[in-house]
Amino acid sequence: MTAIVLLAIGVGLGLWALAMWLVPPRPPLSELLDRLVNAPPQPQPLMIPPGKDSAGKWAARVGAPFTSLLRSFGLPHQGVEKDLAITERSADTHLAEQAALALIGLILPVTVESVLVIGGRPLPWALPVALSLGLAVGGLLLPGLVLREEARRRRAAFRHALSSYLNLIHILLAGGAGVDAALHDAAATGHGWAFRQLRHSLNTARLTRRSPWTTLGQLGEELDISELTELAAALSLAGAEGSKIRASLAAKAAAMRTRDAAEAEGDANAATERMALPGVLMAFGFVLFVFFPALTQITASL
Q: pTM for the complete prediction?
């Protein structure tokens, strides 16, 4: 009886979600006008729009109908949006992957239970229900964990490129170039994704007649890179108050190089410690393999 009630609740929720997706409720016109009038102006993002490389994945196609449902729950969060920005992925693709993996995790144990029921060996009803809920939650969280790790690697690579960018600016300033010219020339010299983002930000500042440190600061906030925001603040002082910027940039570049070297050394030490664990397990297995027959013989003789 309990299984029938749970299945009925699940079918009802599924039919309700399908109806909300097919015929979404329309807000009244007064509410829409109030949003347009009272909504604060939002700055346009400076990052390069993500490409369509992941639009053809099966997970994105399967979960695409459920993206609006996840958005109604407030997903993705602000931190996830920054991770999506720096990994050049769209929010719709990420939500579609979450929905697809959650749906597969929800359906897979039920399918296995149905096969076992047909074969005459059913499991207790609590086991497939718990597995379905656990796999659904795991499928919903797995894309976020993968995205966070990829965003961490992208931010580390961006900081490394930013250190080179600061060195180039310092060289150009030492050669007599102005701040604006040094920013544009240094960005035009480098290659890679980070320098493309910097060039895009500086070109946006030139076309919109804004100061380059303003757009660089906005880019640092969008990508969640504090070093870029600090660089924008230092450039703002140099452009507005005429402070000496060469020594500040040199010190910031040296600090970033020291930090990168410390992080690389820490990662290498952690990898070395992880490599020691298989050796210890192998040695323990060898000792057990050698002494187990002797221990068996001694125990049998007692």
A: 0.68
